[in-house]
C-alpha cells in the first residue's frame, strides 16, 4: 500500500492535523497530481470552520494547488505525466446543466471546489477531474503560481471583465491578499490606479506595487477622494467589510461599476438613490475557469506580476492557516511539500 501525507480536519471547527492516507489511483477522467505548493485562502474556512453545508469529514482543505502530474486515468486528454499543472477554486463542471450548456462553466449548477467537494491540496498528492487543470508556465515557480490560482484569477478576471479601458481611473479597495494582486494587475492593464486602505501603513507598499494614488479611508471620505480624481470607472472591492464597500460607491463616475470579489455574508447598505442618478451599479464576479487561470498566469509572467507570500511546510498548516485568518500575513500564505 502506498500512502501520502495530508493535513485534514475531522469535523467542523476541528484543528488541522497530520495524517497518512492511502494513495488512490486516478479514475476515468481524473488526474493524480503531486503537490509542490498550496496556497492558504480565507475561503478554506468554509471547510475548516464548517461554513459550507454538506461537507463530508474528514476533509483536506486547499484550492490553490500547484504541482506536477504523476498519473492519469482513462480517457484523459491531452494531459500527460510530468506536466506542471495548477488547480484553483474551479474544480470541474458537469457539462449538462443550463449554464454549462451555455458555455458559462464557472456558473455550473453542479460545480466542484477542491477542499469542499473532494479533498484539496493541503497534501502531498491530490486527485482531481481533468477539467480542473491549468497549465503552469515554465517561468513561474510553484510557490508564486499557487496564489494566482485563486486570488490572482479572481482579481485579474474581474478587472478584465469590468469594462474599464486603459487610462481609466480604477480603484482597488483593500490592500491585502486579493488587493495587492489587484493593484499590480490594474497597473499592468494600463489603468490609473487608486489604492484604498485603512491607515497609512500600506501606502508605501501599495505605491511600490503600482498604485498612482493612495487614499487613507480613516482620514478622508474615500468617495469624495475618488470624485476629486474624476470618478472611478471601476472599483474592485476586495475587502470583506460591507460597510467599507458601501462607503466608496459614491466615488464611481457615471455608469461606473463596483465589482465585488471580497466574500461576506453580511449585507451592504446602499440606497437606490446612490445608484440611479449616475446609472452606476454593484456587481459580483466569480473567479473563473481553469482556462482563465492559464490566462492569469501567462499575463503574470509577461508583465512580472507576483504575489507576496509567507511560506510554511505542510506539517505547519495549522499555523499557516491561523496566520492567514489573523489578517497579519503579508499578503498570502503558501504551504510547501518539499
Question: What does the model show?
Answer:
- By secondary structure, the protein is of the alpha/beta class.
- The protein is built from nine helices and 15 strands.
- The strands form three sheets. Strands 3, 4, 5, 6, 7, 14 and 15 form a seven-stranded mixed beta sheet that branches. It has a six-stranded parallel beta sheet with strand order 10-9-8-11-12-13, sandwiched between helices. Strands 1-2 form a two-stranded antiparallel ribbon.
- The longest helix has 19 residues, at 142-160.
DSSP strand content:
25-35%
Cα radius of gyration in angstroms? 20 Å
Euclidean distance between termini CA atoms: 22 Å
Overall mean confidence score, pLDDT: 97
Sheet with the most strands, sense and barrel status: 7 strands, mixed
Helix percent reads 10-25%
Low-confidence stretches: none
> What structural class results from the helix and strand content?
alpha/beta
Shape, please? Answer: globular
User: What is the number of strand segments?
Assistant: 15
Give me the strand/helix succession: EEEHEEHEEHEHEHEHEHEEHEHE
Please give the count of helices: 9
What are the SSEs and their pairings?
Elements: E1 3-8, E2 17-22, E3 30-40, H1 45-48, E4 65-72, E5 84-87, H2 98-101, E6 125-129, E7 134-135, H3 142-160, E8 169-173, H4 179-188, E9 192-197, H5 203-209, E10 213-216, H6 222-228, E11 232-237, H7 242-248, E12 252-260, E13 281-284, H8 290-303, E14 309-313, H9 317-326, E15 332-336
Parallel strand pairs: 8-9, 8-11, 9-10, 11-12, 12-13, 14-15
Antiparallel strand pairs: 1-2, 3-4, 3-6, 3-15, 4-5, 5-7
Helix pairs in contact: 3-4, 3-8
